[in-house]
Design brief:
14-stranded antiparallel beta barrel, two-stranded antiparallel ribbon, elongated, 29% helix, 486 residues, Porin, alpha+beta
Protein backbone atom coordinates (compact mmCIF):
# COMPACT_ATOMS: atom_id res chain seq x y z
CA UNK A 1 0.00 0.00 0.00
CA UNK A 2 2.94 2.46 0.55
CA UNK A 3 3.74 2.36 -3.19
CA UNK A 4 0.16 3.34 -3.99
CA UNK A 5 0.27 6.46 -1.84
CA UNK A 6 3.81 7.43 -2.90
CA UNK A 7 2.44 8.69 -6.21
CA UNK A 8 -0.07 10.96 -4.54
CA UNK A 9 2.26 12.26 -1.85
CA UNK A 10 5.14 13.33 -4.12
CA UNK A 11 7.31 16.25 -3.03
CA UNK A 12 6.82 19.85 -4.35
CA UNK A 13 10.09 19.68 -6.25
CA UNK A 14 9.09 16.60 -8.14
CA UNK A 15 5.73 18.19 -8.78
CA UNK A 16 7.30 21.26 -10.35
CA UNK A 17 9.61 19.14 -12.44
CA UNK A 18 6.66 17.31 -13.80
CA UNK A 19 4.82 20.51 -14.63
CA UNK A 20 5.65 20.50 -18.34
CA UNK A 21 3.93 17.18 -18.63
CA UNK A 22 0.76 18.86 -17.44
CA UNK A 23 0.28 20.64 -20.71
CA UNK A 24 -3.18 20.90 -22.29
CA UNK A 25 -2.28 18.03 -24.56
CA UNK A 26 -1.38 15.75 -21.65
CA UNK A 27 -3.89 17.07 -19.08
CA UNK A 28 -6.49 14.34 -19.51
CA UNK A 29 -3.97 11.48 -19.39
CA UNK A 30 -2.54 12.35 -15.97
CA UNK A 31 -5.80 12.25 -13.98
CA UNK A 32 -6.76 9.02 -15.68
CA UNK A 33 -3.51 7.42 -14.62
CA UNK A 34 -3.95 8.71 -11.07
CA UNK A 35 -7.49 7.39 -10.75
CA UNK A 36 -6.56 4.02 -12.21
CA UNK A 37 -3.69 3.67 -9.79
CA UNK A 38 -5.94 4.59 -6.85
CA UNK A 39 -8.60 2.05 -7.83
CA UNK A 40 -6.03 -0.72 -8.19
CA UNK A 41 -4.53 0.17 -4.81
CA UNK A 42 -7.92 0.15 -3.07
CA UNK A 43 -8.77 -3.21 -4.63
CA UNK A 44 -5.47 -4.67 -3.44
CA UNK A 45 -6.02 -3.24 0.05
CA UNK A 46 -9.57 -4.69 0.13
CA UNK A 47 -8.30 -8.16 -0.73
CA UNK A 48 -5.65 -7.91 1.94
CA UNK A 49 -8.22 -6.75 4.52
CA UNK A 50 -10.63 -9.56 3.58
CA UNK A 51 -7.89 -12.14 3.89
CA UNK A 52 -6.87 -10.75 7.28
CA UNK A 53 -10.52 -10.70 8.43
CA UNK A 54 -11.11 -14.30 7.30
CA UNK A 55 -8.00 -15.38 9.13
CA UNK A 56 -9.15 -13.57 12.28
CA UNK A 57 -12.60 -15.22 12.06
CA UNK A 58 -11.01 -18.65 11.65
CA UNK A 59 -8.79 -18.00 14.64
CA UNK A 60 -11.79 -16.89 16.74
CA UNK A 61 -13.71 -20.02 15.76
CA UNK A 62 -10.75 -22.21 16.65
CA UNK A 63 -10.33 -20.43 19.99
CA UNK A 64 -14.06 -20.79 20.66
CA UNK A 65 -14.06 -24.52 19.90
CA UNK A 66 -10.94 -25.11 22.02
CA UNK A 67 -12.28 -23.24 25.04
CA UNK A 68 -15.66 -24.97 24.81
CA UNK A 69 -13.85 -28.31 24.80
CA UNK A 70 -11.80 -27.30 27.85
CA UNK A 71 -14.99 -26.13 29.61
CA UNK A 72 -16.65 -29.50 29.00
CA UNK A 73 -13.56 -31.18 30.40
CA UNK A 74 -13.66 -28.92 33.45
CA UNK A 75 -17.28 -29.99 34.05
CA UNK A 76 -16.30 -33.65 33.76
CA UNK A 77 -13.61 -33.05 36.39
CA UNK A 78 -16.12 -31.23 38.64
CA UNK A 79 -14.51 -27.80 38.22
CA UNK A 80 -17.47 -25.56 37.30
CA UNK A 81 -15.60 -22.50 38.62
CA UNK A 82 -12.86 -23.08 36.06
CA UNK A 83 -15.43 -23.60 33.29
CA UNK A 84 -17.14 -20.31 34.15
CA UNK A 85 -13.91 -18.35 34.24
CA UNK A 86 -12.95 -19.67 30.81
CA UNK A 87 -16.33 -19.31 29.09
CA UNK A 88 -16.93 -15.72 30.21
CA UNK A 89 -13.98 -14.56 28.10
CA UNK A 90 -14.60 -16.93 25.19
CA UNK A 91 -15.26 -14.94 21.98
CA UNK A 92 -18.85 -15.54 20.76
CA UNK A 93 -19.49 -17.48 17.56
CA UNK A 94 -23.01 -17.74 16.15
CA UNK A 95 -22.92 -21.51 15.63
CA UNK A 96 -21.93 -22.27 19.25
CA UNK A 97 -23.30 -19.30 21.19
CA UNK A 98 -26.31 -21.29 22.44
CA UNK A 99 -24.05 -24.00 23.82
CA UNK A 100 -21.81 -21.39 25.47
CA UNK A 101 -24.84 -19.81 27.17
CA UNK A 102 -26.04 -23.25 28.29
CA UNK A 103 -22.64 -24.14 29.75
CA UNK A 104 -22.42 -20.76 31.48
CA UNK A 105 -25.85 -21.39 32.97
CA UNK A 106 -24.72 -24.77 34.27
CA UNK A 107 -21.48 -23.58 35.80
CA UNK A 108 -23.11 -20.47 37.33
CA UNK A 109 -25.75 -22.67 38.90
CA UNK A 110 -23.10 -25.06 40.20
CA UNK A 111 -21.23 -22.22 41.95
CA UNK A 112 -24.57 -20.91 43.35
CA UNK A 113 -24.62 -17.74 41.24
CA UNK A 114 -28.28 -18.38 40.48
CA UNK A 115 -29.25 -14.90 39.31
CA UNK A 116 -26.58 -14.98 36.62
CA UNK A 117 -27.41 -18.60 35.78
CA UNK A 118 -31.03 -17.63 35.11
CA UNK A 119 -29.91 -14.91 32.68
CA UNK A 120 -27.66 -17.34 30.80
CA UNK A 121 -30.39 -19.98 30.54
CA UNK A 122 -32.88 -17.38 29.30
CA UNK A 123 -30.40 -16.32 26.61
CA UNK A 124 -29.90 -19.97 25.56
CA UNK A 125 -33.68 -20.46 25.30
CA UNK A 126 -33.97 -17.36 23.13
CA UNK A 127 -31.23 -18.63 20.81
CA UNK A 128 -32.67 -22.17 20.44
CA UNK A 129 -36.37 -21.99 21.37
CA UNK A 130 -37.04 -25.51 20.05
CA UNK A 131 -34.41 -27.16 22.29
CA UNK A 132 -35.84 -28.69 25.47
CA UNK A 133 -32.54 -28.90 27.37
CA UNK A 134 -32.15 -25.24 28.52
CA UNK A 135 -35.82 -25.14 29.53
CA UNK A 136 -35.47 -28.31 31.60
CA UNK A 137 -32.28 -27.09 33.28
CA UNK A 138 -33.76 -23.66 34.04
CA UNK A 139 -36.79 -25.42 35.52
CA UNK A 140 -34.41 -27.43 37.71
CA UNK A 141 -32.80 -24.18 38.85
CA UNK A 142 -36.22 -22.74 39.70
CA UNK A 143 -37.10 -25.85 41.70
CA UNK A 144 -33.85 -25.57 43.63
CA UNK A 145 -34.83 -21.95 44.39
CA UNK A 146 -38.31 -23.01 45.51
CA UNK A 147 -39.99 -21.32 42.50
CA UNK A 148 -42.34 -24.14 41.52
CA UNK A 149 -44.71 -21.73 39.81
CA UNK A 150 -41.97 -20.64 37.40
CA UNK A 151 -40.74 -24.19 36.83
CA UNK A 152 -44.08 -25.73 35.82
CA UNK A 153 -44.61 -23.73 32.58
CA UNK A 154 -41.06 -24.46 31.41
CA UNK A 155 -41.43 -28.19 31.98
CA UNK A 156 -44.77 -28.10 30.21
CA UNK A 157 -43.17 -26.40 27.17
CA UNK A 158 -40.34 -28.93 27.14
CA UNK A 159 -42.53 -32.03 27.47
CA UNK A 160 -43.28 -32.45 23.77
CA UNK A 161 -39.74 -31.70 22.55
CA UNK A 162 -37.88 -33.92 25.01
CA UNK A 163 -36.73 -37.48 24.50
CA UNK A 164 -34.00 -39.78 25.74
CA UNK A 165 -31.92 -38.26 28.53
CA UNK A 166 -33.81 -34.96 28.34
CA UNK A 167 -37.09 -36.81 28.96
CA UNK A 168 -35.57 -38.67 31.90
CA UNK A 169 -34.41 -35.36 33.38
CA UNK A 170 -37.85 -33.86 32.81
CA UNK A 171 -39.57 -36.76 34.57
CA UNK A 172 -37.17 -36.45 37.51
CA UNK A 173 -37.88 -32.74 37.84
CA UNK A 174 -41.59 -33.39 37.49
CA UNK A 175 -41.42 -35.71 40.48
CA UNK A 176 -39.83 -32.85 42.45
CA UNK A 177 -42.33 -30.27 41.28
CA UNK A 178 -44.80 -31.26 43.96
CA UNK A 179 -42.91 -33.23 46.62
CA UNK A 180 -44.49 -36.51 47.79
CA UNK A 181 -47.41 -35.96 45.45
CA UNK A 182 -48.54 -38.08 42.48
CA UNK A 183 -49.61 -34.79 40.99
CA UNK A 184 -46.31 -34.48 39.15
CA UNK A 185 -47.84 -36.52 36.34
CA UNK A 186 -50.13 -33.58 35.57
CA UNK A 187 -47.10 -31.88 34.03
CA UNK A 188 -47.88 -33.15 30.53
CA UNK A 189 -48.60 -30.51 27.93
CA UNK A 190 -51.96 -29.84 26.33
CA UNK A 191 -50.82 -31.64 23.21
CA UNK A 192 -49.98 -34.81 25.17
CA UNK A 193 -51.94 -34.92 28.43
CA UNK A 194 -51.46 -38.65 28.85
CA UNK A 195 -48.53 -40.87 29.80
CA UNK A 196 -48.09 -44.63 29.86
CA UNK A 197 -45.29 -46.49 31.66
CA UNK A 198 -44.49 -50.17 31.24
CA UNK A 199 -42.17 -52.26 33.43
CA UNK A 200 -41.02 -55.84 32.87
CA UNK A 201 -38.35 -57.67 34.81
CA UNK A 202 -37.18 -60.51 37.02
CA UNK A 203 -37.46 -60.74 40.78
CA UNK A 204 -36.03 -62.83 43.61
CA UNK A 205 -37.42 -63.19 47.13
CA UNK A 206 -35.92 -65.30 49.92
CA UNK A 207 -39.09 -65.19 52.04
CA UNK A 208 -42.18 -65.04 49.83
CA UNK A 209 -44.50 -66.00 52.70
CA UNK A 210 -42.91 -63.77 55.40
CA UNK A 211 -42.08 -66.88 57.45
CA UNK A 212 -40.51 -66.49 60.92
CA UNK A 213 -36.82 -66.80 61.67
CA UNK A 214 -37.46 -69.63 64.18
CA UNK A 215 -39.76 -72.64 64.22
CA UNK A 216 -40.14 -72.46 68.02
CA UNK A 217 -42.91 -70.17 69.31
CA UNK A 218 -43.14 -69.66 73.12
CA UNK A 219 -46.71 -69.38 74.41
CA UNK A 220 -48.80 -69.79 77.56
CA UNK A 221 -51.73 -72.19 78.09
CA UNK A 222 -53.58 -71.96 81.38
CA UNK A 223 -50.69 -70.12 82.94
CA UNK A 224 -48.23 -72.84 81.93
CA UNK A 225 -45.41 -71.86 79.50
CA UNK A 226 -45.28 -74.05 76.40
CA UNK A 227 -43.39 -74.04 73.13
CA UNK A 228 -44.98 -74.73 69.76
CA UNK A 229 -43.04 -76.01 66.75
CA UNK A 230 -44.30 -74.55 63.49
CA UNK A 231 -44.82 -76.74 60.44
CA UNK A 232 -42.15 -76.61 57.74
CA UNK A 233 -44.65 -74.96 55.38
CA UNK A 234 -44.69 -71.94 57.69
CA UNK A 235 -40.96 -71.36 57.39
CA UNK A 236 -39.45 -68.94 54.80
CA UNK A 237 -39.86 -70.07 51.19
CA UNK A 238 -37.45 -68.77 48.57
CA UNK A 239 -38.36 -68.31 44.92
CA UNK A 240 -37.50 -66.35 41.80
CA UNK A 241 -40.10 -64.98 39.45
CA UNK A 242 -41.15 -62.42 36.89
CA UNK A 243 -42.77 -59.03 37.45
CA UNK A 244 -44.88 -56.87 35.16
CA UNK A 245 -46.25 -53.39 35.77
CA UNK A 246 -48.38 -50.94 33.80
CA UNK A 247 -49.22 -47.38 34.81
CA UNK A 248 -51.17 -44.69 33.02
CA UNK A 249 -52.16 -41.10 33.74
CA UNK A 250 -54.25 -38.39 32.13
CA UNK A 251 -54.05 -34.72 33.13
CA UNK A 252 -56.70 -32.09 32.51
CA UNK A 253 -55.63 -28.51 33.11
CA UNK A 254 -58.47 -26.33 34.42
CA UNK A 255 -56.48 -23.09 34.56
CA UNK A 256 -53.00 -21.86 35.49
CA UNK A 257 -53.32 -23.18 39.05
CA UNK A 258 -55.82 -26.02 39.08
CA UNK A 259 -55.82 -29.32 37.24
CA UNK A 260 -57.34 -32.78 37.44
CA UNK A 261 -55.21 -35.89 37.34
CA UNK A 262 -56.50 -39.41 36.68
CA UNK A 263 -54.23 -42.39 37.34
CA UNK A 264 -54.42 -46.16 37.05
CA UNK A 265 -51.81 -48.78 37.80
CA UNK A 266 -51.42 -52.55 37.89
CA UNK A 267 -48.45 -54.54 39.15
CA UNK A 268 -48.12 -58.30 39.38
CA UNK A 269 -45.52 -60.86 40.45
CA UNK A 270 -45.48 -64.51 39.43
CA UNK A 271 -43.10 -66.95 41.13
CA UNK A 272 -41.54 -69.89 39.33
CA UNK A 273 -41.57 -72.26 42.34
CA UNK A 274 -44.43 -70.95 44.50
CA UNK A 275 -47.39 -70.13 42.25
CA UNK A 276 -49.65 -70.07 45.33
CA UNK A 277 -47.93 -66.80 46.30
CA UNK A 278 -48.47 -65.10 42.94
CA UNK A 279 -49.93 -61.68 43.66
CA UNK A 280 -51.04 -58.50 41.96
CA UNK A 281 -52.53 -55.15 42.89
CA UNK A 282 -54.62 -52.60 41.00
CA UNK A 283 -54.87 -48.92 41.97
CA UNK A 284 -57.27 -46.28 40.63
CA UNK A 285 -57.04 -42.62 41.65
CA UNK A 286 -58.19 -39.12 40.76
CA UNK A 287 -56.73 -35.91 42.16
CA UNK A 288 -57.62 -32.25 42.25
CA UNK A 289 -54.33 -30.37 42.09
CA UNK A 290 -53.47 -26.80 43.05
CA UNK A 291 -50.09 -25.11 42.67
CA UNK A 292 -48.55 -21.66 42.71
CA UNK A 293 -45.05 -20.34 43.16
CA UNK A 294 -44.73 -21.29 46.84
CA UNK A 295 -47.55 -23.77 47.55
CA UNK A 296 -48.82 -26.99 46.07
CA UNK A 297 -51.64 -29.21 47.26
CA UNK A 298 -53.67 -32.18 46.11
CA UNK A 299 -56.81 -33.99 47.20
CA UNK A 300 -56.84 -37.56 45.92
CA UNK A 301 -59.61 -40.15 46.28
CA UNK A 302 -58.32 -43.63 45.46
CA UNK A 303 -59.06 -47.33 45.68
CA UNK A 304 -56.75 -50.36 45.74
CA UNK A 305 -57.44 -54.03 45.10
CA UNK A 306 -54.99 -56.80 46.01
CA UNK A 307 -55.12 -60.45 44.97
CA UNK A 308 -53.22 -63.56 46.05
CA UNK A 309 -53.20 -66.70 43.92
CA UNK A 310 -55.97 -65.26 41.78
CA UNK A 311 -58.31 -64.57 44.71
CA UNK A 312 -59.31 -61.10 45.85
CA UNK A 313 -57.79 -60.42 49.28
CA UNK A 314 -58.37 -56.77 50.12
CA UNK A 315 -60.28 -53.75 48.87
CA UNK A 316 -59.14 -50.40 50.26
CA UNK A 317 -60.83 -47.16 49.21
CA UNK A 318 -59.55 -43.94 50.73
CA UNK A 319 -58.66 -40.31 50.34
CA UNK A 320 -55.31 -38.54 50.79
CA UNK A 321 -54.52 -34.84 51.06
CA UNK A 322 -50.99 -33.54 50.54
CA UNK A 323 -49.57 -30.03 50.93
CA UNK A 324 -46.07 -28.72 50.18
CA UNK A 325 -44.62 -25.30 51.04
CA UNK A 326 -41.28 -23.94 49.82
CA UNK A 327 -39.56 -22.11 52.68
CA UNK A 328 -36.28 -21.34 50.90
CA UNK A 329 -34.47 -21.81 47.62
CA UNK A 330 -33.65 -25.40 48.46
CA UNK A 331 -36.04 -26.62 51.18
CA UNK A 332 -39.74 -27.53 51.11
CA UNK A 333 -41.96 -28.69 53.95
CA UNK A 334 -44.69 -31.28 53.39
CA UNK A 335 -47.78 -32.46 55.25
CA UNK A 336 -49.99 -35.49 54.63
CA UNK A 337 -53.38 -36.56 55.98
CA UNK A 338 -55.59 -39.42 54.89
CA UNK A 339 -58.30 -41.96 55.62
CA UNK A 340 -58.81 -45.49 54.26
CA UNK A 341 -61.34 -48.26 54.86
CA UNK A 342 -59.81 -51.70 54.45
CA UNK A 343 -61.99 -54.71 53.72
CA UNK A 344 -60.31 -58.12 54.11
CA UNK A 345 -62.40 -60.56 52.09
CA UNK A 346 -60.83 -63.67 53.65
CA UNK A 347 -61.29 -62.58 57.30
CA UNK A 348 -63.88 -59.94 58.16
CA UNK A 349 -62.51 -59.54 61.72
CA UNK A 350 -59.50 -57.77 60.17
CA UNK A 351 -61.62 -55.12 58.45
CA UNK A 352 -60.38 -51.75 59.65
CA UNK A 353 -60.67 -47.98 59.42
CA UNK A 354 -57.30 -46.29 59.12
CA UNK A 355 -56.32 -42.65 59.72
CA UNK A 356 -52.90 -41.31 58.77
CA UNK A 357 -51.00 -38.05 59.20
CA UNK A 358 -47.43 -36.94 58.71
CA UNK A 359 -44.98 -34.10 58.21
CA UNK A 360 -41.76 -34.02 56.24
CA UNK A 361 -39.11 -31.98 54.47
CA UNK A 362 -37.27 -32.15 51.16
CA UNK A 363 -33.94 -30.46 50.42
CA UNK A 364 -32.16 -30.01 47.10
CA UNK A 365 -28.60 -29.88 48.41
CA UNK A 366 -27.01 -29.66 44.95
CA UNK A 367 -28.45 -29.87 41.43
CA UNK A 368 -27.61 -33.60 41.50
CA UNK A 369 -28.40 -34.45 45.14
CA UNK A 370 -31.81 -34.48 46.79
CA UNK A 371 -32.68 -35.74 50.28
CA UNK A 372 -35.97 -35.97 52.10
CA UNK A 373 -37.60 -37.29 55.22
CA UNK A 374 -41.03 -37.78 56.75
CA UNK A 375 -42.55 -38.82 60.07
CA UNK A 376 -45.86 -40.69 59.89
CA UNK A 377 -48.52 -41.59 62.44
CA UNK A 378 -51.24 -44.13 61.63
CA UNK A 379 -54.13 -45.53 63.61
CA UNK A 380 -56.03 -48.65 62.49
CA UNK A 381 -59.29 -49.54 64.22
CA UNK A 382 -60.13 -53.13 63.31
CA UNK A 383 -63.44 -54.96 63.71
CA UNK A 384 -61.70 -57.29 66.17
CA UNK A 385 -59.80 -55.25 68.77
CA UNK A 386 -56.95 -57.76 68.76
CA UNK A 387 -56.03 -56.51 65.26
CA UNK A 388 -56.30 -52.80 66.06
CA UNK A 389 -52.91 -51.13 66.16
CA UNK A 390 -50.88 -47.90 66.14
CA UNK A 391 -47.98 -47.30 63.76
CA UNK A 392 -45.42 -44.50 63.88
CA UNK A 393 -41.92 -43.80 62.66
CA UNK A 394 -39.62 -41.88 60.37
CA UNK A 395 -38.53 -42.52 56.80
CA UNK A 396 -35.78 -40.94 54.70
CA UNK A 397 -34.56 -41.10 51.13
CA UNK A 398 -31.66 -39.89 49.02
CA UNK A 399 -31.34 -39.47 45.25
CA UNK A 400 -28.00 -38.74 43.60
CA UNK A 401 -27.37 -38.39 39.90
CA UNK A 402 -23.83 -39.72 39.65
CA UNK A 403 -23.71 -38.92 35.93
CA UNK A 404 -26.27 -37.70 33.38
CA UNK A 405 -27.58 -41.19 32.58
CA UNK A 406 -27.30 -42.84 36.03
CA UNK A 407 -29.46 -42.10 39.07
CA UNK A 408 -28.82 -43.78 42.42
CA UNK A 409 -31.31 -43.94 45.28
CA UNK A 410 -31.44 -45.08 48.90
CA UNK A 411 -34.46 -45.42 51.19
CA UNK A 412 -34.76 -46.16 54.90
CA UNK A 413 -37.77 -46.44 57.19
CA UNK A 414 -38.40 -47.44 60.79
CA UNK A 415 -41.92 -48.28 61.99
CA UNK A 416 -42.94 -48.93 65.58
CA UNK A 417 -46.10 -51.09 65.66
CA UNK A 418 -48.20 -51.60 68.83
CA UNK A 419 -51.34 -53.75 68.91
CA UNK A 420 -54.14 -52.83 71.31
CA UNK A 421 -54.96 -56.18 72.89
CA UNK A 422 -53.21 -59.38 73.83
CA UNK A 423 -53.70 -62.30 71.48
CA UNK A 424 -54.76 -65.73 72.78
CA UNK A 425 -51.87 -67.91 74.02
CA UNK A 426 -49.64 -64.89 74.72
CA UNK A 427 -49.10 -62.76 77.81
CA UNK A 428 -48.77 -59.30 76.24
CA UNK A 429 -49.89 -57.36 73.16
CA UNK A 430 -47.80 -57.79 70.06
CA UNK A 431 -45.11 -55.18 69.36
CA UNK A 432 -43.09 -55.01 66.14
CA UNK A 433 -40.19 -52.76 65.14
CA UNK A 434 -39.88 -52.98 61.41
CA UNK A 435 -36.82 -51.67 59.57
CA UNK A 436 -36.87 -51.42 55.77
CA UNK A 437 -33.84 -50.35 53.72
CA UNK A 438 -33.40 -50.38 49.97
CA UNK A 439 -30.95 -49.36 47.26
CA UNK A 440 -31.91 -48.63 43.67
CA UNK A 441 -30.32 -47.56 40.40
CA UNK A 442 -31.82 -46.22 37.17
CA UNK A 443 -29.66 -46.34 34.06
CA UNK A 444 -30.99 -44.46 31.05
CA UNK A 445 -30.35 -46.46 27.87
CA UNK A 446 -32.46 -44.29 25.57
CA UNK A 447 -29.48 -43.41 23.38
CA UNK A 448 -28.99 -47.12 22.67
CA UNK A 449 -32.64 -48.20 22.54
CA UNK A 450 -34.00 -45.25 20.60
CA UNK A 451 -36.88 -44.59 23.00
CA UNK A 452 -37.51 -43.48 26.59
CA UNK A 453 -36.10 -46.56 28.30
CA UNK A 454 -34.29 -47.14 31.59
CA UNK A 455 -32.88 -50.21 33.31
CA UNK A 456 -34.07 -50.39 36.92
CA UNK A 457 -32.30 -52.42 39.61
CA UNK A 458 -33.37 -52.59 43.26
CA UNK A 459 -32.47 -54.43 46.44
CA UNK A 460 -34.65 -54.34 49.59
CA UNK A 461 -34.01 -55.74 53.07
CA UNK A 462 -36.75 -56.04 55.71
CA UNK A 463 -36.06 -56.83 59.35
CA UNK A 464 -39.15 -57.20 61.54
CA UNK A 465 -38.28 -58.04 65.20
CA UNK A 466 -41.36 -58.89 67.25
CA UNK A 467 -42.09 -59.97 70.82
CA UNK A 468 -44.31 -62.70 69.29
CA UNK A 469 -41.95 -65.27 67.78
CA UNK A 470 -43.99 -66.15 64.70
CA UNK A 471 -44.12 -62.42 63.80
CA UNK A 472 -40.32 -62.06 63.78
CA UNK A 473 -39.15 -62.38 60.16
CA UNK A 474 -36.45 -61.20 57.79
CA UNK A 475 -36.78 -60.77 54.05
CA UNK A 476 -34.46 -59.95 51.16
CA UNK A 477 -35.75 -59.02 47.70
CA UNK A 478 -33.98 -58.08 44.49
CA UNK A 479 -35.31 -57.07 41.08
CA UNK A 480 -33.92 -56.15 37.68
CA UNK A 481 -36.01 -54.94 34.79
CA UNK A 482 -36.61 -52.48 31.97
CA UNK A 483 -38.95 -49.53 32.24
CA UNK A 484 -40.34 -47.71 29.18
CA UNK A 485 -42.41 -44.56 28.97
CA UNK A 486 -44.66 -43.58 26.09
Amino acid sequence: MSACFRFRLSSPASASAAAPAASPANFSRVPRLSWLTMVLCLAAWGKTYAAETAAEITAIEQQNATELAFARRAFAERRPDLACAMLKDTPPVDDTEAERMLLLGRCSSAVHDRVQAELYYRRAIALVPADATPKIELAGLYLAMGRQGDAAPLLGQAADASEGQARTDLDLLASRLRPNDPVSASLNSKDKPWAVQLYAGLTWDDNTNAGPVSRSVPAVIGGIPVTFDLMQESMPRESAGAALGLNGSYALRLDDRFSLLFQAGWFGTGYFDRQDYNNDSTTLAAALVYSNQAWSASLQPNVRYTRLDGRLQETTPGIVERVARAISDTVSLTATAGYAKRTVHTDSTRNADAWQGGVGAIAQLTPDLQVGGEYLLQREQAQAAVYSRRLSGPSAYLQYRIRPDLLLGANFSYTDVHYDQTMPLFTQPRTDRQVVSSLSALWDISRYAGRNMVVRAQYTHIDNPSNIAYGYFRRNMASLGVQMQF
